[in-house]
Structure formats: structure tokens, C-alpha cells
Design brief:
Elements lengths: L5 H20 L3 H5 L1 H37 L6 H25 L11 E7 L3 H22 L2 E9 L5 E9 L3 H5 L4 E7 L10 E11 L13 E6 L6 H5 L4 E6 L4 E5 L5 H23 L4 H9 L9 E4 L4 E4 L4 E3 L2 H5 L4 H20 L1
Parallel strand pairs: 4-9
Antiparallel strand pairs: 1-3, 1-5, 2-3, 4-5, 6-7, 7-8, 9-10, 10-11
Helix pairs in contact: 1-3, 3-4
Length: 360
């Protein structure tokens, strides 16, 4: 039976002490009169509520278990008490695991929207076609989750593929789930462009960035070069008649972002700035420990076929996530946006790693 560790108990007991301090504080006239201070205290109190309530429930189960074990010593109640004790031990074990998970460090980006970037890698036109397939897969997954997915930049090919696609995905839990998608995605199938019917291996790279808000990162306008030009491609007749496309270059870093998917130049500029802020935020955070180049390489790699986090094998109808050794034989469902089985498994693996790190 899994039990709550002494270290975990100490942390929950500290939460209870802090909860009592806050309750006493918000009852004081001087705190009530100070609106910002009172609001901060109420917010912290609300954040502690789930943890302290769960810990209280855990201790109640412990008490009931102790009572059941005592009753098991009485002959006339032994069978019933032993059965109840067995049930309570299972419940206590589940509750202990829940409490341990509640103590895991919270991802600071958990509540953020996502900038999703998909790029064709090795494999020529087949890679571009797979990039379009991945885009549709994420669009369908976003629909299932009730998220909003908006194209910021699309660079298409004559055969309907995508050389590059950048999307904003907005909705509760978007970052917490889609962060696992970053890396090289490999496809194995017979390309529609191959008349000989020979199976080919191609790749796409996927980068996932938490959306940076303007308050997170202020950019000096003097560091930007903003060019406008006439959009081309899938934008339609209206967009092709106006200089609505925007290219923003961040001069100190050389980062370039383009957006042409909106009819309004102003809207394209706003969207391009969202992507630029997110890329700069990632760059600056990672540069703090001199790891940006490595982090970016880990996220998107070189697009080489040997680098992959996941393989989509159409001939065998399977999808394999190589990070956790998970293979499922429902490739059509996955390509239609049914990603929960994979993402749930990745999230569980992340939690297990965090729990092990917590115990060390």
C-alpha cells in the first residue's frame, strides 16, 4: 500500500498552517480596508483549498482504517472489518498518489495559449504533404478540445502541401497537452507522387511555444524593421490585391516573422508580433543558461529521418511514440485528431519523472 511520505505530510501541514494564518488575516479590519492586500490573501487562500481539503480527506481515511483494523480483532465483526480494511487500504493508496501529484511543481506556462509551428523536413514534396496532414490533425484535435486554432502564416506548395505553417491555438489546457508534440515527426507511406508505389520515409518538424503576452516582453520599436508586401498563395483575390502581408525583422537577433493570412495589414502585424514575442521569450529564457541552441535543436532537430519522437506508418496502420514506447494501431483515428491516448500517456510519464525527482 502506497503511503504519503513524511516530507509530503510536512508540506500539507504547512499549507494548513498558512491557510489558518490567511483566514485570521482577512478577518482583520486593516486587511479588509486594504483591497489589494485582501485580494491577494483571498487568492492564496483559494489556491490552498484543494490541497488542504484532499489532505483532510486522506487523514479521515487513515482514521477509518485504524478503526476497521481494531474491529478485525473482534470475532463477530472480523470478516466485515477485514473486508472494509482492505477497501480502505486501496482508497488510501489512491489518495496518497493524488496528493503526491498535487505537490508537483506547476508548469509556469500551464495556462498559456500555444504558437504551433510545422515545417517540412526531409522528403521533398512528400514531407510538405505530411506537414499539411499534421496541420489538419491538430486542427481536428483543437476542435475536439473546444480550442480556437488560427492560421498566422502558411507557405503552401502546388500539390497542396505545406512548406511551413504557423498557428495560434487558444484554449484551456492547450500548452499543457501540446507541449509534448515538439520534435521530429516521421511518416512512412507510399507517396502520391510515386508512380512506382515504393514506400518512402519523410519527416516534419514541430515546434511548440507558449504564447508570450505583451506584458511578458516589451520590444523596443527601434529594434524592428517592418516591411509590407503583396500577399500570395491561398489568401484569395482580395488579399492578393493589397499590400497586406507583413514581415517583421528583429534586428538584434535576426529573427524574422511573416504573416499574410489576414485581409487587414494591421491584423497581420498583430499576429506576427505574437509569434515574434513568443520566439524572443523562448530565446531569452533559454539564453539565460546558454542552452537556446540545444533546446531549439531538441525541439525541431535538423529534420533528418533518424531523429524522431513519433512515427506514423500508414502501411501497418500504426503510430509509435518512441519516447515512451507506445504503439497504437489506429492511425486513421490519430490523423483525425484522436490524440488523447498518446498525450495522456506522455503526461503520465512526465508526472512519474517529476515524482521520482521529487523523491530524490
Amino acid at each position: 500500500m502506497a503511503k504519503l511520505s513524511d516530507k509530503a505530510r510536512e508540506r500539507f501541514e504547512a499549507m494548513e498552517s498558512r491557510q489558518e494564518e490567511l483566514r485570521e488575516a482577512i478577518a482583520q479590519p486593516e486587511v479588509i480596508a486594504d483591497a489589494p492586500r485582501c485580494q491577494r490573501a483571498l487568492k492564496e487562500l483559494a489556491e490552498l483549498e484543494d490541497g488542504t481539503a484532499a489532505y483532510s480527506a486522506y487523514r479521515q481515511i487513515e482514521r477509518h482504517l485504524a478503526e476497521a483494523e481494531e474491529m478485525a480483532a473482534e470475532p463477530e465483526l472480523a470478516d466485515m472489518a477485514r473486508a472494509e480494511a482492505a477497501r480502505l487500504r486501496e482508497e488510501l493508496s489512491r489518495k496518497a498518489q493524488e496528493l503526491q501529484l498535487m505537490l508537483l511543481p506547476r508548469d509556469p506556462d500551464e495556462g498559456r495559449n500555444v504558437i504551433l509551428e510545422i515545417r517540412a523536413g526531409a522528403g521533398g514534396e512528400e514531407s510538405a504533404l505530411f506537414a499539411a496532414d499534421l496541420s489538419r490533425m491538430y486542427q481536428r484535435y483543437a476542435q475536439r478540445q473546444g480550442w480556437r486554432m488560427e492560421a498566422i502564416s502558411l507557405s503552401d506548395t502546388d500539390l497542396g502541401g505545406l512548406k511551413e505553417a504557423v498557428f495560434l491555438i487558444a484554449g484551456s489546457g492547450a500548452w499543457g497537452r501540446l507541449k509534448f508534440e515538439r520534435g521530429v515527426h516521421r511518416v512512412q507511406r507510399v507517396p502520391v507522387t510515386d508512380s512506382a508505389g515504393k514506400k518512402q520515409t519523410s519527416t516534419c518538424t514541430v515546434a511548440v511555444l507558449p504564447e508570450a503576452e505583451e506584458v511578458d516582453l516589451r520590444i523596443d520599436p527601434s529594434e524592428l524593421r517592418i516591411d509590407t508586401y503583396r500577399a500570395s498563395g491561398h489568401g484569395g483575390q482580395y488579399i492578393n490585391r493589397t499590400d497586406s502581408a507583413v514581415r517583421i525583422t528583429h534586428l538584434p537577433t535576426g529573427l524574422v516573422v511573416t504573416c499574410q493570412d489576414q485581409k487587414s495589414q494591421l491584423k497581420n502585424r498583430e499576429q506576427a508580433m505574437k509569434v515574434l514575442r513568443s520566439r524572443l521569450r523562448e530565446l531569452r529564457q533559454s539564453s539565460a543558461d546558454s542552452a537556446y541552441a540545444e533546446q531549439r535543436r531538441v525541439q525541431v532537430g535538423t529534420g533528418d529521418r533518424s531523429e524522431r519522437i513519433r512515427t506514423y506508418n500508414f502501411h501497418e496502420g500504426r503510430v509509435t511514440d518512441h519516447r515512451i514506447g507506445l504503439t497504437i494501431y489506429r492511425i486513421d483515428d490519430v490523423m483525425n485528431g484522436d490524440l488523447d491516448e498518446i498525450l495522456d500517456a506522455l503526461r503520465m510519464e512526465e508526472r512519474q519523472l517529476l515524482l521520482r525527482a521529487q523523491d530524490d
